[in-house]
Specification:
The protein has helices at about 10-20, 30-35, 65-80, 100-115, 120-130, 130-140, 150-160, 285-295, 300-319; strands at about 5, 50-55, 60-65, 85-90, 95-100, 170-175, 180-195, 200-205, 225-230, 235-240, 245-255, 260, 265-275, 280-285. It has about 325 residues and is an alpha+beta fold.
C-alpha cells in the first residue's frame, strides 16, 4: 500500500502513518525535507490511497479501493476517537470523508509539533488564515520553539477573539453526523471572555419549526434565547424566554467539543440532548438517533458512549 498525502494535514498525517509503518509515496519536497532519513518516506510503488483536504479544511478525503481504505479508516477511528467517518458515493472511486473535530485537530497539532514547531490549534487557525499562520510560526518558532504556547495565544487573540466582540452577531454551524450543515439563528454577543473562551449570545431570529424542539411549546413573537457556550465543552445551553422574561425551558445540546471561529461557533451534533422545564424536571431525548448513527458507522462506539455519559452527567448535575 502506498499513501499519497496532500494539504494542511500532510505533515501530521505523514507522521501518523509513518509511525504505523505505512509507506508514503510521491510526497511534496517539503515533506521529503521534513522527514529526511525516515523509513518509508518517498517509497517506491504506486499510489493506492490518496488523502487530500476537504474544501472547508475540516478534515480529509480518502480515495482508493475499499479493501485499502477500510484498515486506514479503522486506524483513524481507533486513534482519534472523535473523528466522524462518512462514505461518499462516486462513480470513479470509493471515497471516505473524515472530519476532524476539536480533539482530533488538537492531537494532529501535537503530531505535527514532533516534526516542526507548531502552535496549539494550528490546524484550526490555518483554516482561518493559512499564510499568516505559516509566516508567524516560521518567524516566531524557528528560533524560539519554546514560545509555542504564547505565540498560539497571540494568534488566537488576533484571528478569533479580536472579532468576537460585544454587540456583534455570530453564526452557529450545527453539523449533523451525516454531514448536513444546519445554520441555526445568529446570536448577538452579550458577553465574550477571551480568558475563559466563552460566549453568551442573545438570539431572537428563530428559524425552522413552529415549536421549540422537545419542549412542546409554540414559538411566539418576542421570544428570545440566551445561549451560553464555552470552547472545548461537550455541550452548550439554550435558555428560551417569552417577551416578558418568563422561562420557557432549557435545551442542552450534546456535541463534539465546540470550536470558535472569527464569525461562528462550530461543532458536530451528537443527536442526544437534554431538556429541562421551568418546574425543574429534565429528560434525555433522542437516544435512538444516536444509536442509529452508531449503527451507520459514522462515529465510534467510544464517541457514542461519551455522548451518552455527558447527557447522564448533565442530568445529574441540574436535577
Amino acid at each position: 500500500m502506498g499513501l499519497k498525502i496532500r494539504g494542511i494535514y500532510a505533515t501530521a498525517l505523514t507522521c501518523f502513518f509513518l509511525e504505523h509503518n505505512y509507506p508514503i509515496v510521491n510526497p511534496s519536497r517539503q515533506i521529503i525535507k521534513r522527514f529526511k532519513g525516515c523509513q518509508n518516506i518517498d517509497a517506491p510503488g504506486p499510489t493506492t490511497v490518496e488523502i487530500r483536504d476537504r474544501r472547508d479544511g475540516q478534515g480529509v478525503l480518502l480515495s482508493g479501493e475499499r479493501d485499502e481504505l477500510n484498515p486506514l479508516v479503522q486506524l483513524l477511528r481507533e486513534s482519534f476517537f472523535d473523528v466522524i467517518c462518512r462514505e461518499r458515493k462516486s462513480t470513479a472511486d470509493n471515497i471516505v470523508d473524515i472530519e476532524f473535530p476539536f480533539l482530533a485537530k488538537k492531537a494532529l497539532d501535537e503530531l505535527r509539533n514532533k516534526v516542526v514547531p507548531t502552535v496549539p490549534h494550528h490546524h484550526r487557525l490555518r483554516i482561518i488564515a493559512p499564510k499568516f499562520v505559516d509566516l508567524m510560526e516560521k518567524k516566531q518558532l524557528a528560533i524560539h520553539p519554546d514560545k509555542r504556547e504564547r505565540t498560539g495565544r497571540d494568534m488566537e487573540r488576533s484571528l478569533i477573539w479580536g472579532f468576537l466582540r460585544k454587540g456583534r452577531e455570530v453564526a452557529i454551524e450545527h453539523v449533523k453526523l451525516d454531514g448536513k450543515v444546519v445554520s441555526l439563528s445568529e446570536g448577538e454577543i452579550l458577553e465574550a471572555g477571551c480568558q475563559d473562551k466563552m460566549l453568551v449570545l442573545k438570539r431572537s431570529k428563530f428559524k425552522g419549526r413552529y415549536n421549540y424542539d422537545g419542549l412542546a411549546e409554540p414559538k411566539a413573537e418576542g421570544d428570545y434565547a440566551v445561549t451560553e457556550v464555552t470552547e472545548g465543552e461537550w455541550y452548550y445551553r439554550h435558555s428560551y424566554y417569552r417577551r416578558d422574561g418568563r422561562l420557557i425551558g432549557q435545551y442542552y445540546n450534546i456535541n463534539t467539543p465546540v470550536e470558535f471561529y472569527p464569525d461562528k461557533i462550530r461543532y458536530i451534533d451528537l443527536e442526544i440532548d437534554l431538556l429541562k422545564w421551568p418546574e425543574g424536571t429534565s429528560e434525555i431525548v433522542e437516544k435512538e438517533l444516536l444509536a442509529r448513527e452508531l449503527q451507520a458507522g459514522r462515529l465510534s462506539r467510544q464517541l457514542a458512549k461519551k455522548a451518552a455519559a455527558v447527557a447522564e452527567a448533565l442530568k445529574g448535575s441540574i436535577s
